[in-house]
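User: Reviewer 2 asked us to show a designed sequence for the structure in our supplementary figure. I'm pasting the structure tokens here. Could you produce the per-position amino acids so we can include them in the response letter?
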């Protein structure tokens, strides 16, 4: 029983780590004039990120 609980916890933690997503930021965005983006001027959903400029 102890082995089953440990296995379940390992699978649960592994699935949680594997499901994390990251935002791809192209290298062109790190040089002027495109380096004015900011997470404070963005909206994020589960699959998309939208940036805007004022």
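Assistant: Here is a per-position design you can include in the supplement:
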């Amino acid at each position: 029983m102890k082995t089953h609980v440990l296995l379940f916890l390992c699978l649960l933690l592994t699935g949680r780590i594997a499901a994390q997503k990251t935002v791809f930021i192209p290298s062109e965005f790190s040089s002027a004039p495109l380096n004015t983006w900011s997470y404070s001027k963005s909206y994020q959903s589960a699959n998309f990120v939208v940036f805007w400029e004022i």
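For the response letter, you might also mention the following. The longest strand covers residues 42-44. The chain has a mean pLDDT of 74.
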